[in-house]
Amino acid sequence: VKHVSRPDLSFTTVADNDNRLPVRSSIHAGYTFYVGAEKFMKSRFYVMPNLMFINQGKFNQINAGVYAGKGIIFGGLQFRHTIQNPDAFITTIGVRKDIVQVGYSYDFTVSKLNTNAGAHEISVMLDFGNTQAVRDARKRKKTAECPALFGQ
User: Fold this and answer.
1) E-assigned strands of the chain?
2) pLDDT tens, residue by residue, 62-106
3) Greatest C-alpha distance within the chain
4) Burial of 69 from C-beta contacts in 10 A (0-12 / 13-18 / 19+)
5) Using alpha carbons only, how large is the chain's radius of gyration in Å?
6) DSSP β-bridge partners for residue 28
7) What per-residue confidence (pLDDT) applies to 31?
8) What mean pLDDT comes out for the span 110-137?
9) Is the distance from CB of 83 to CB of 57 less than 8 angstroms?
């Protein structure tokens, strides 16, 4: 949720409810499915479907798509739809190594507003939950769990 305080956008000091920024809310859902058996020191192929819904004032948007990857390479395809208007296909390709993920995305516009000028985007993400210390802590926790038989 963003803009909960609904800041005033007017140029005057007079309070005006028509010139307040509407609250923006978004809901994200997704899951990572791994394909194949886990083998020692080999990365597995994964598929990650995802869905995002955004609302701000009278505006609604849905993004639906899927990412897939193996090893350091990943890619994806999403479709952005603004309820009344199918907007764009979004393609993504990138690499990830340890905690760093770098991606390149391009939006192919499919709406009536088609200007043949899609949008380019480069993203850099840091996943601090993927550090060696965190992975080691997860392994220790899994090995220390008691079987359900002994838990009360």
Assistant:
1) 24-30, 33-35, 45-56, 59-70, 73-81, 86-97, 100-109, 119-126
2) 999 999 999 899 999 999 998 788 888 999 999 988 889 999 999
3) 68
4) buried
5) 21
6) 52
7) 92
8) 79
9) no
